[in-house]
Each structure stands twice: as C-alpha cells, then as structure tokens.
Amino acid sequence: MTKALKASGFLGLATMMAVGLHQFVILSGGNPVPPWMIGGHAHLGVLSILAIVMGFAVPALGVTGQLRTAVTVLYIAGQWGIPGIVWLGEGFGLTFLMPTGFLWGLALIASMLIMFYVTITGDGDAGDRGPTATAPADD
C-alpha cells in the first residue's frame, strides 16, 4: 500500500509539473493564467509531496491492516480529488461537481486523523527501530 502512496505522489508531481509547463506556455503567449489552474496546480504539488511522505510514515508508524488500507485510499482520493474538482468544476464548467470538494477534503482529514490515532496509541519507539532509524546529527 505504501507503494501506491509513493507512486501517486510521484505521478502527482509529474502532473503538477506538466500543468506548470502549460501555465508557462500560456504566460509566454501574453495571456494570464486562470486562477483555477493556479489553485489546482498548487494543491496537487503540496498534496503529492505529502503522499510521498505518507508512503514513508505509514510503515514507520507501523500502520497495518484495514487502517493502512483506509489511510492509503482516503489520502489518494483526496490528493487527486481536491485539485481535480477545481480543474473540472471551474476550468471545464462542471460547477455541479464543486460540492464534492467537501468529500475529498474529508477524505484527507480522515486519513490524517487515522495517522494521529496510530501515532498516539502505537508504540512510541516504533520509528526508532530497524534500518530506517538514523542517528541524531551533531552539526
């Protein structure tokens, strides 16, 4: 499941970069970039970086079973749903889809609350064991 989070993160970053390049083309032509395009671009970038981080945080905190599946599915749905609904709703005039933005936002919130729950109820030293642990720096 963490492979899905990481892959979704990298695909999201590639998509965000392609949209950024498209924005550059629009600007190069002397036209302003539509605000809805900028908003979706920014949200996809940040949420994609966090998807990659989540891909490492889930196993580091020992999230397993149904909670692991829920975190993964909810996060990926929100990662793509938030910018997607901005692009579809505002950019393509499908404004009737805009209220679904609440669902995508709630999916992200739910995934973070699951991670919060696992963090406060799990083994506090789970991230300090194994090959992913690093020694503190003295610099």
From TrEMBL:
Residue ranges annotated for the DUF8059 domain, each copy included: 1-139
Keywords assigned: Membrane, Transmembrane, Transmembrane helix
Transmembrane segments: 7-30, 42-63, 70-89, 101-120
Presence of keyword Metal-binding: no
Membrane as UniProt keyword: yes
Protein name in the entry: DUF8059 domain-containing protein
Organism: Halobellus rubicundus
